[in-house]
Amino acid sequence: MAKIGMIKFRRSKWITIPMEEYESMKSTLEILSSPRWLKEALRGKEAVRRGKTRYLDEVKKELGF
Fold this sequence. Notes:
The structure is a single chain. This protein has a domain at 19-63. It contains three helices and two strands. The protein is elongated, with a radius of gyration of 19 Å. The chain is α+β, with helices and mostly antiparallel strands. The protein has helices at residues 19-32, 35-49, 56-63, and strands at residues 5-9, 12-16.
């Protein structure tokens, strides 16, 4: 779990987070702000809901990895 800290100085407040967490959040925002990526994410979620997905191990075995 990421260590998050909140700092208050006079009237200003800010939060510190590890760089790895920041990069992850940045990537997530980039994906969610792109109509194309959002559409793909929703399509994937629907495929999971309908049971149209397979486990990675099954696909690897099928492909000979």
